[in-house]
Each structure stands twice: as structure tokens, then as C-alpha cells.
Amino acid sequence: MATQFSPRSTPAPTTNRDIFTRDLAGELIDMNDKEFPKIREIILRTTALTNKLNSRAHSPKKVRKIFSKIIGKKVDESTWIIPPFYVDFGRNIRVGKNFFMNQACTFMDRGGITIGDDVFIAPKVCLTTINHDFNPYNRRATFCKPIVIKDRVWIGINVTICPGVTIGENSVIAAGSVVTKDVPPNVIVAGNPAKVIKQLDYERKG
Predict the structure, then answer these.
(1) I want to staple 175 with a disulfide (CB 3.0 to 4.6 A). Which of 87, 88, 108, 156 is the partner?
(2) Is 105 left (phi over 0), alpha (psi -120 to 50) or beta?
(3) Among this protein's residues, is 132 annotated catalytic?
(4) Full-prediction pTM beyond 0.90?
């Protein structure tokens, strides 16, 4: 008798649409898929660009230029990124203005990572949008869920944000937290799994 998996852990069925569309839609992508070489090509290109970014000291302007090539779109001049930076795909990252990211962060973005304005990300933060199939006999297949980080979020050192999470405006993710569920706006969360520990109380400037 076949092992049964709960509906909550079962990815959407694969269709005949373009592999990039299916990947972003959260459908199951097998590494044996005839279109998977298209994904592999971007991964290899992104690996070369991240090696270039991390191999030597660059000016902030040069870092922005290489990062823009990685994500396939120009970032605002207010962006400040401190390498090294690690990413598996790159093309599904969007960042807003006044974005700051400290060193040694890892983004796995095939499911889409959207970052708002005035977001601060501390060192060693991991944002991952991808999961392997829970069926142990199909573990080479993956499915994705997007991460959304809204304006003025501060993510502390060594935080992990899991697939499918949205973090509301102004919220703070305490150091070392593992975020597995959506975070409401204007709170501080901490722990593994992260939970709300405090409501933010502040005066709005301007």
C-alpha cells in the first residue's frame, strides 16, 4: 500500500507550462524535467557572478552593478550591500530603495523574494523559498513559495526565513530566529519557531 501524504504537504501538480512559470507558481519541478537545463543555465551564470562579487573588494557602486546583473534589473543608488553574498538563482529577487544587506547572507529565490523600502538585513541571514518534495521517493523534485518582506523591516543576525512567509511593515526579527509563519506588522518576533514577543511602540517621523 502506498504511503499517504497530507494535502498540506503536497505540491501542486506539474503542468505543461513554461518551467519558470511553473516554478514561481509553486508547482513540482523535477530535475529530470526536459526544461530543467534552462534553470541550470541561470544557476551557473549566477554562480559565476557571485564568485566575481565575492572574490575581491569592490566599491559600493561596483557591488550594486554586479548585484544588478545577478537579479537582472538595476537597483537604486541608495542600495548598500556588503559582500560576500550567496544566491542560487538571482532572477527572482526584487529590492526597494534604501536597502541595506550586511555580509554572508544567503538567498534561495526561485520562488520569488520581494523586499520593500528601508529594509535592513544583518549578517548571515538566510531567505529560502524552495523545498524538496516530502515524498522520500521523489526527493529530487522541488517546489517553491515566495517570501515578501515589507517596508522598514529589520532582520537580525543569523535569522532563517522559510518558504511562503510574509513579514509585515516595521517588524523586527530577533537574532537567531527561525520564521516559519507570517509576521504581522509592528511587532518583534523571536525564537524557533519565531513568535511575537512585543508590540512596537514608536512615533512616526515627519
Answers:
(1) 156
(2) beta
(3) yes
(4) yes
